[in-house]
Structure formats: C-alpha cells, structure tokens
Amino acid sequence: MTLIPEEVQESTSQESTLLYVGKEVILPVQLPEFDEEFYKWKKNFWKNKIRGIKKIVAPMVDQSELAFRAMMRAHGADLCYSPMIHAHLFVNDTTYRKNAFSTLPTDRPLVVQFCANSPETFLDACRLVEGFCDAVDLNLGCPQVIAKRGHYGAFLQEEPKLIAEMISKVYKHCRLPLSVKIRVLQDLPSTLAYAKMVEEAGASMLTVHGRTRDQKGVLTGLADWTFIQAVKNSLSIPVVANGNIQMPGDVEKCLAETSVDAVMSAEGILYNPYLFEGRIMPNFMAAREYLEYATKLNANVSAIRAHIFRFCHYSLLKYEDLRHKTSVVFNLHEFVEIVDELEAKIRAEVGSVHEWEKYIEGAKFETLHELIESTPHWFSKPYIRPPQINGPSESDFRVQRRAEIEKIANTTGLSKRQIRKRERRRIELEKERSKKQSYPICKRCKQPAGANCENLLCRKCCKWTCVREGKICKAHRFNAERMKEKHETFLASKAAYEANLTPDIEV
C-alpha cells in the first residue's frame, strides 16, 4: 500500500522525466539587458508571490533534494528551496551540475540557492537555471568550517562591497528574481544596516536566520526573533523568518510575534516532516513514505541515509544494530528492509501502534523537552542539542558509545584507541562488502539488476519489458517519450504478425 497521496502519485507519473541543467545548456557571451518595467517586475516579484506562501522548506546541503521536496509539498509546504549549490562547481563541472540539482515540472514554486564569492560566477550559475525554477537565492548564512575555508556563506558578511556587487550583477543581468539568506550580526544596528544594503543592491526578498555566525553546534542556542521583527519593520521587501521552528504551533507563533511574511524551517522538518501540518507521526511511517518518493525520483544514497537517520533518530539510538546497518548499506531496497525491521521491532515492543493517537490526542506541549519526554522513541520528533555546561557537551549516542568502548576495553585489555581503530576498519570493510552485494537479482534472467530499477531487472531485460509492456524506468533512463514510440512500433509489428498468421475463413 502506497503512502503517497493519489494526486501526488498522478503528478509524479505524468511528469516522470527528471529535468537537469545538462551540458547542452550554453550561456550566450553577451549579457542580457532589460528595461525598467522588467526590473520593476523583478523587484516586486516576491511581494506579489508571497501572499499565498507561509511555510517554506529551507535550503539544506544534500537534504532538500527533489524527493524530500516532493514529500514536503504533500505535507503543507508552500515553497521549497533546492540544496545549497556551489556556484563555481555548478558552472564548470557538468557532472556536479547533474548530481547537485534535478527537478520536475510539478516541482514549483522552487528557489535554487547558490553559495558564491565571485559576481561573474554567481551570475553564470543563476543564468544556467533560468527556466528550471522561479527564482534564485544567495547563501550568506552558512556558518560551517567548510564555508570559512571556501570563503562563502556567512564568512562574507565582513565584505559588504563584494556582496552588493554579486546581488547587483544578478539583478541587472539575470531574468530570475533574486532573494538572499543571511544571519543576524552581533548587534541590531549592524544587522539593520546589513539588511538594508542587501535590499538596496537588488534583492527582492530577504530570509533572516535569527542566530549569529558563531551560534552553531553545541553553541546553537535559540534564534532571536526580536532581530527578525526589527528587520521586517525596516525593509519594504518581504522578509522570511528562520530559526526556532521545531514543534507544532511554532510557525503560527513566529508569524504572530515577528509579523514576517513567511516562515522557513530546516532542522525541524528534517526530524518531523509533518511539522507544517501541525502533527507528529510514527517514524517508520515517515521513513517509508520518504523511501517511496526516493524510489520514484531517484534520490542518491547519501540523502536517503541522512533522512532515515533523522526521521528515526530516537529509535536508532535504542536499536544499535539497525543504526549500524543504516550507516553501511548502499542500496535502496536495503533501506526498505531496515525500515521494515524497525517497524517489526517497535510492534514487538509496544504491541499495536495503531493507537499511537492516544499519545498526542488533545495534548498541548509547552516546550520541546515536554514533547520529547512525553512521546515514545518511535515518533519523528525534534532533536535537542545538549547544552554546554562548563565544557563541551556530548550527544546521547556519544555518551552511549563511550560506555560501550569502556566495557570492551575492560573485557579485552585493549586500549580505547586500538578499539576505535579496529571499529573503523570493520565498518569500512562492511561498507565495501555492502557495495559489492548491493545489486538485486534480475527477476527475468537472474543476472545483477539495476540498483534502483523499479522493475527489478537488468538493463537488457528492462528494455525488453518496457518496450513490450509500455513501462518506463528512471534508473535505466527509459523515459515515457522514448518508450511510447518503441511500444507503439512493437504493437504494430505484433498486430501485423498476428494478422499474417490468421487463416482466411470462408463463409
């Protein structure tokens, strides 16, 4: 039984051909120029569009991919962002371009986000996605170490001239409206000046993450909505709030307290994809539904693995064997088996989970801690980073793992360093073994089948089946248009052959 809503099934089957920015897309050397009327349309684009938008899926590296966007659109999302894409690689590497971004005609409204530190490269990347999305976005909010090394994201905020030049260049020469995502600075006056500069340079919408660049990891803390409200009151373009959207009711609370035009969520929806609908669900249901989208839309293994880990975070802490399996498998059907096994374990532990509504029916959780502590581990629910008190904090998994290593060391006499080294070797060996065993068997010829073939066939048998039965296969790239022509040719040949075999009957 499929978990994907019927209307979504119809749209994904009708628009089954994935769209990529292929190597055949070549940019004209001459930069386009536009008249004042067009610039006015671009500047006002989000003012008109945002009226029907309140809940937004944030850009997340390897996480807001097409399959997850499709799932979120079915569960309350009004607008989705692509994962953050590296502009330089997107412009210069066609393989990266195909792996980093794919879409469907039904994947709208859609914003493609880039990180960049060169006006020319940023402009080229934005021009490449014209026709594939509704707008583009500049990432000025990534606080990770890789962004510091690559000189992009939040580590450009000390260079307002470079930022203004990048925004202005795209505003003048790209057909797509441009929005920008920032983090707040250390004080309110600096933040307001920063936001105003972005607006004046040509941005038509601004997303404000209510944390500073240093608020990450164990120092994450709470986002400051008062800064976001002040930015909203000082600008004429739409403002989107980001931060502290973790539990049902947070979206409405943020809209009321900040007066922003819309609210964006990242981590909250990664752990609970039903957050925009104001509910929580058993984690294996969320994982199974996502895997259906991942199968239909050819999601990559790294994205699938990350989503399963987040949906089932609390259960995988309890069932260490499943956590380990999730970290080493490389095939879609193996992830399905893990989710099936997780459901079986949960049902064996708690009996019928069909009565899961009793845990949340009529419940009003005032805090995140109350939500997490009042519901069983088998719900998809937010993750809270442990606070840092007099030193670095540790996650539940690290504490649990340290105790296990301590026990092994006491039993075997090995050093903890040696135990960790052997563990790494064992995991790498299992990953290699899983890669080698990851191909299912073709159900027609018993040779290895395509890893993600929905017909469970090798390429040759899949083509044979698609031609005769009018099927398609995204894994083998047998699209509807190509197979329709071959299928019709096959039917015509079959009819002609059968007509020649039919004897004339005299009456």
TrEMBL record:
Signal peptide: none annotated. Keywords: Flavoprotein, FMN, NAD, NADP, Oxidoreductase, tRNA processing. One of its GO terms (molecular function) is flavin adenine dinucleotide binding. It is an enzyme of class 1 (oxidoreductase). It catalyses: 5,6-dihydrouridine(16) in tRNA + NADP(+) = uridine(16) in tRNA + NADPH + H(+); 5,6-dihydrouridine(17) in tRNA + NAD(+) = uridine(17) in tRNA + NADH + H(+); 5,6-dihydrouridine(16) in tRNA + NAD(+) = uridine(16) in tRNA + NADH + H(+); 5,6-dihydrouridine(17) in tRNA + NADP(+) = uridine(17) in tRNA + NADPH + H(+). Residues 57-305 form the DUS-like FMN-binding domain. Its cofactor is FMN. Its EC number is 1.3.1.88. Coiled coil: none annotated. It comes from the Eukaryota. Belongs to the Dus family. Dus1 subfamily. This is tRNA-dihydrouridine(16/17) synthase [NAD(P)(+)]. The lineage of its organism: Eukaryota, Metazoa, Ecdysozoa, Nematoda, Chromadorea.
